[in-house]
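Appendix B. One record, verbatim.
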Amino acid sequence: MQILGGALLAVGIVVIGIGIAGQVGSWGAKTETVAGSTDDTSGATGNGSSSTTSTTLAPAEDPAAFLDQLGAALRDGNTDFLVARLNPAVVARYGSAQCLGALAGARDTSAAFTVQQVSDPADFDWTTDGKTISIAETVTVDVDRVQRGVPSTASLHIVGINGRFTWLVDCGNPIGP
């Protein structure tokens, strides 16, 4: 019995040591960056909220170039691009399967974005389905856009991860924060 107790104590000490090293070294630290339209926030109550920070360096990618690619992906129905560029906050809120299903039918042959103004990075509260998360270092891009053949203006919110911009979209019914 003493051998089992000693072994459990040793395992506990190792686990605590790993936990402390992980905390000090920020192992598993989550960086979130989000892109999306202020249209995504309509009707949201914002009664659930959480906060994130970003330590991501500014993307090498230009906001206008990203929005050109996003528009082309929407026109072509390029689900691979649309899913690959989802922000992790979107996947956390809706799940991969639900987003894949929603984006598989997102083709819009008229989709286009013309950049009018780009802000400096700042915090942005992304709200959908009564849930809010604060996303650090968000770039607001004022655009003229065409969506389903209808021209309008919008403020889109994009944030870089690993040198590339990501976007946010409401994929349906939330399963997470």
